[in-house]
Amino acid sequence: MSEQLNELSFEEALKKLEEIVASLENDEIPLEKSMALYEEGMKLSKQCNRMLKNAEEKMTELMQADGTTQPYDEVLED
Predict the structure, then answer these.
(1) Between residues 29 and 4, which one has the greater pLDDT?
(2) How many domains does the chain have?
(3) What CATH number is attached to the domain comprising 60?
(4) Are 42 and 34 in contact (CB under 8 A)?
(5) Are 28 and 42 in contact (CB under 8 A)?
(6) CA-based nearest residue to 52, from 3, 4, 25, 17
């Protein structure tokens, strides 16, 4: 499963996560299936967060005009 997660784009992972949330909102699915979906959803959530963090780090580096890097939060404070 983790290999499959790494192959998903951010948009694909987010769509799959949204589908899992919709399934979990259905009261008629068995507990075991709910637990499996929850576990998969947590993995997808972590993967999406990693992708967003990587994208944020790349954007921070690209935004620096003088060639130095600093976190985006520090740019806002200046």
Answers:
(1) 29
(2) 1
(3) 1.10.287
(4) no
(5) no
(6) 17
